[in-house]
Amino acid sequence: MRFEKYLNSLTISKMALKSLGKLFFVPQIFMLILSPLATYLEFASGSGYRICYLASYMILQVLCPFFSLWWPLLGFREHIEGGGREALLVYKKSILRELIEVFIFYVLHFLLLLLLYLLFLDFNYFPFLFIFLAQSFAFFVVSISLAFLLKSISVPFIVCLIYEIFFMGAKAPGLDFMNMLSSYPPEDLAGLFFPYVFIFVACLIILPLAHLRFRRL
Amino acid sequence: MLKIEKLHKSYKKNSALDGFSCELGRGIYGLLGPNGSGKTTMMRCICGLISCNSGSIECGGDEIGYLPQQFGMMKALTLYEMMEYFATLKRIPKTEQGEEIERCLELVNLSDKAKSRVGSLSGGMVRRSGIAQAILGDPSIILFDEPTAGLDPEERMRFKSLLKKIRDGKTIIVSTHIVSDVEAVCDSIIIIDRGRNIFTGSNGEVAELARGKAYLIEEGQESRLIGNYYIKDRISRDGKSYLYVLSDSPVHGAARAEAEGGIEDGYLCALKNI
Questions:
Q1: CA dihedral in degrees (B212, B215, B221, B226; nearest 10)?
Q2: Do B48 and A92 touch (CB under 8 A)?
Q3: Is the distance from CB of A30 to CB of A63 less than 8 angstroms?
Q4: pLDDT by residue (tens digit) across B66-108?
Q5: Among A78, A89, A217, beta carbon nearest to B73
Q6: Whole-angstrom distance, CA of residue B88 vs CA of residue A204
Q7: What string of DSSP letters covers A14-30?
Q8: pLDDT tens track for B211-232
C-alpha cells in the first residue's frame, strides 16, 4: 500500500517533468553542457588552472541555485497557477512530496555535473558540496513558498534572479547576514554559519504556512 | 446523498452564499442562476476547495469528479497522457487506467485524438477533455461548472446524451445560466440567486411557476403593466411590435402568450419574484 502510494507519487513527478516538453532540457544544457564547455574553452585558451577553477566556481554559484527552481516550478505550473488548477486541487491537495522528489532529481544532476568537472577538468568542488546544496535547497524552499503564497511561478524566478544580481553582482554591504553567494570558494566554512542558518530557519517557518495557503483556492 | 445545510460564505463584504441548503439524492440536478448568484462558490464548497464561514456539507465520503469553469492545461502532453495524469491523481490502479481512459474518451468522442497534443486541440475539444477527466474513475458525485461553454450546438446535444449514459447511481450537478442546457435532461432544477436556494423542483414544477403569467402587449402600452413584471422579449408580428411580459398581475387588454416559455419563464418568475 505504501509502496503503491510512493510509486504513484513518482509517476506524478515523472509526468509533471514530461509536461515541460523541450523546456525540460534547459537546466541540462546550461549545467551539463554549456558551463563545463565554457570552462574547458577558457582553459584551452591558455588561462591558468587557478583562474579557470575560480571562474567555474562563480558560474556554479550563479547557475546551480537558480536552476533548482526550474523543474519544480515549471513542472507543477498547472497546480500552482494553471487553468486547470481547481480540478487538480480537488484530486490532490498537496504536491509537496512530488516537489521534493523533483528537487532530489535535480540534486542528482548536480552531483553528475561535479563528477564531470572532476573527471574531465580535474576541478574538485566536492569539498564545497554542502554550500551548493544548501544554496539550492534555500532557493527551492523560498521559491515554492512564494509560488504557494502568490499562486505564481514568475515571481519566485524574479525574486531569485534579483537576489543573485544583488549579492553576486552588486555585492551589497551590510547584508552579509543573508548573503549565501560568493565569487570565491570560502576559506572558512564555519564563517558561513550565520547566513545559512538564518535562511534555513526562515524557510522552515515560511514553507508550512505557505503550504497551508496553497491547499485552498 | 449530498446534504448541504445553511451554507454561508462571504468574501470581505460580499455574501456569496447566504444560508444555501438542499438535499440531493441520485440523479441529475440543474443549478440555475444568473452570473454572480453563487453557483461556482457552491460547487467549490462541495469540492472542498474553499471553506465556508458556517454551515455543513455531507457527501458520505463519495468520490467527486469536477469540471471547473476554466479548464485547459498540460499543452505539451498528449490527450492520453493528460488523462493518465488525472488517473494517477485519482489513484486509479495502473492496471485499470488504460481501459478507463479509453472508456471516458469514447464517451466524449475524443478517442481519435488520444495521441494528439493537448495544445493542438480546439477549445471545444479541450472542454470535452475536461468532461472526460471529471467522469474518469466513475465517481459517485460529478460537478460540472458551465460544462457547455465553448461547445457548438452539436456538442451540447452530445453532452446531454452523455449525462443520460452516465447517470446511473450518481449525483450529477450541472451548474449553468443557460436554461436549454438543463432542459430535457435534469430530474430537478435548483434555482440560486444571491447565494440562496430560491426554488427546488422538477422541470414541470419550475414551468408551473410561470403558468398564467405570460402576456403579449403592444409596444408602447407598458402603462398597462402593474405590480411585479418583467419584460422578457420583443417580438415582431404582422408588422407590429409586441413585448413578451411576465407579470404577477393580470394585464388588461393583453393577449396571453400562446406558447409560454416553460422552464425559462418559470426560472425568470422565480428570479424576479413574479
A1: 30
A2: no
A3: yes
A4: 999 888 778 889 999 999 999 999 999 999 999 999 999 999 9
A5: A78
A6: 30
A7: HHHHHTTGGGGGHHHII
A8: 888 888 888 888 878 888 898 8
Task: State how beta strands B141-145 and B64-67 pair.
Answer: parallel
pLDDT above 80 for A83: no
A132 SS3 class = helix
| Widest CA span in chain A | 59
Cell numbers of A129, please? 558540496
Domains in chain B and their CATH numbers? 2-202 (3.40.50.300), 207-272 (no CATH)
d(CA A191, CA A175): 14
**Pairing of the two strands B214-218 and B240-247:** antiparallel
- E strands, chain A, are none
Cell (9 digits) for A90? 480537488
Question: By the 8 A CB rule, do B198 and B169 touch?
Answer: no
Residues near B111 by beta carbon (within 8 Å), at least 6 away in sequence: B102, B105
pLDDT tens-place string over residues A3-58: 888 889 999 999 999 989 899 999 999 888 888 888 888 888 888 888 888 888 88
B84: nearest CA partner in chain A: A15
Nearest to A128 by CA among A120, A118, A141: A118
For residues B29 and B27, what is the distance between their CA atoms, to the nearest angstrom? 6
Contact A82 B81 (CB under 8 A): no
Beta pairing class for B229-237 and B255-256: unpaired
Q: How far is CA B251 from the centre of its chain?
A: 33
- Provide the ipTM: 0.86
Closest residue on chain A to B67 (Cα): A87
- Report the pLDDT averaged over residues A168-180: 70
- Chain B residue set in contact with A, beta carbons under 8 Å: 44, 47-51, 64, 66-68, 70-74, 76-77, 81, 84-86, 88-91, 130, 133-134
> What backbone torsions phi and psi does residue A153 show, to the nearest 5 degrees?
-100, -20
Least CB–CB distance from B88: residue in A12, A78, A217: A12
Helix axes A2-18, B79-89, angle to 10 degrees: 150
A83 contact B CB<8A = yes
Which residues are within 8 A (CB) of A96 and not within 5 positions of it... i.e. 6 or more apart?
A211
pLDDT value for A191 = 66
Q: Which of B45, B64, B89, B97 to mutate to test the interface with A (most CBs of A within 10 A)?
A: B89
